[in-house]
Design goal:
Blueprint: H1 5-10, H2 15-28, E1 33-40, E2 46-52, E3 57-63, H3 71-85, H4 96-102, E4 103-108, H5 113-122, H6 137-148, H7 151-155, H8 168-175, H9 202-214, E5 218-223, E6 230-232, H10 240-259, H11 281-288, E7 291-296, H12 320-336
Parallel strand pairs: 3-4, 3-5, 5-7
Antiparallel strand pairs: 1-2, 2-4, 6-7
Helix pairs in contact: 2-3, 3-12, 10-12
């Protein structure tokens, strides 16, 4: 494989390996970092939360809500390695003393390990850009089926519609066809994106319990389904100073991507489209009292479809390394913003 140093170091090829790496990193630095299991997937994989630092700025970073979104968990592994081991991924150093004294961090790097493990079984390199050579109709069908089935099987469409949750009987019917659940779903057959109000999934329950207990002032959720990369802010519920703070933070991410010559949507930050349903996470984070950013990193050859997409003419997809660096820089910019 003609991979960069960063890809070789951080691009793990299964959820199990990734969880082992996060666990090993924590156990090597017990004075700076602690780890707890906040949930366990239906297939027995743990959902880990890492806590670092003791400063007044309380920040939560989430990634891997959908198993077919690989860059966030790996970008966080790279950033944590830079923070704890003083490595320099992409030539960037992280000031450990400044970060850990200035902030208290709660990192849930792989929210949906079951989906991520299925994704790695379907596509061993865990990267969209290498298995979709063009956005043909056939590739579009393959892409949506891998992520979302059995949505099409039961409802005739690959489009996600709330509550995006399948019963045990439906899952059994789908598996009887010889196919696996889509990797955007948890092992229990639900999409966490639509689960923040009803809270049926053990992964969502564990995440909400942790965040309700620690009440971070700032939450960032990293996804991997945008072409081009974009950070969404303010939340559609924010007003006044609150909205201005979220927008300022979003611009700091944009400036970081720009400084490193990464491709992204240069338009001013905008809210994620306001949902008509009650399920979405940004409303729950707003009720929690947290400033919120939703980051959508381009993950290769992805679909420029849907209300939130604004493809730029002539823009190419990111490489795996660029996608990894984009997630790394998002975490770095967020945590170090205004630390003195």
């Amino acid at each position: 494989m003609n991979w960069s140093h960063e890809e070789e170091s951080y691009w793990f090829l299964s959820a199990r390996d990734g969880l082992t790496r996060f666990r090993r990193l924590t156990y090597t630095h017990t004075k700076q970092c602690s780890l707890r299991e906040i949930a366990r997937s239906g297939s027995g994989l743990p959902v880990y939360a890492l806590q670092l630092g003791s400063g007044p700025k309380h920040v939560a970073i989430l990634s891997g809500m959908h198993g077919c979104e690989p860059s966030g968990p790996r970008g966080l592994l790279a950033w944590l390695d830079a923070l704890l081991n003083h490595s320099r991924p992409f030539g960037i150093s992280v000031d450990q003393e400044k970060v850990l004294k200035g902030s208290t961090l709660y990192v849930i790097p792989l929210l949906n390990p079951g989906g991520a493990e299925r994704f790695s079984l379907h596509f061993p390199d865990c990267w969209h850009g290498t298995w979709l050579n063009g956005w043909t109709e056939a590739n579009a069908t393959k892409f949506f089926a891998e992520a979302n089935e059995p949505e099409h099987f039961f409802y005739g469409t690959y489009a996600k519609k709330p509550p995006m949750r399948f019963t045990p009987d439906q899952i059994a019917q789908w598996k009887a066809t010889g196919h696996a659940l889509g990797s955007s779903l948890t092992d229990a057959g639900l999409d966490m994106w639509f689960d923040w109000d009803d809270t049926n999934g053990v992964e969502t329950k564990g995440t909400k319990a942790l965040l309700q207990a620690v009440r971070p002032s700032l939450v960032m959720d990293i996804h991997n389904f945008m072409f081009p990369t974009e950070v969404f802010a303010p939340t559609v519920y924010s007003q006044g100073e609150w909205a201005a703070e979220e927008t300022t933070l979003a611009r700091s991410l944009q400036e970081s991507w720009r400084a490193h010559r990464l491709l992204f949507n240069h338009r001013p930050p905008r809210p994620y489209p306001k949902p008509s349903e009650k399920y979405y996470e940004d409303y729950w984070f707003y009720q929690l009292g947290a400033r919120t950013l939703i980051v959508e990193v381009n993950g290769g050859m992805l679909a420029p479809e849907g209300a939130e997409y604004e493809p730029l003419p002539g823009q190419r997809p990111l490489t795996r390394r660029e996608s990894l660096e984009s997630a790394f820089l998002a975490a770095h910019a967020l945590v170090t913003h205004e630390l003195t």
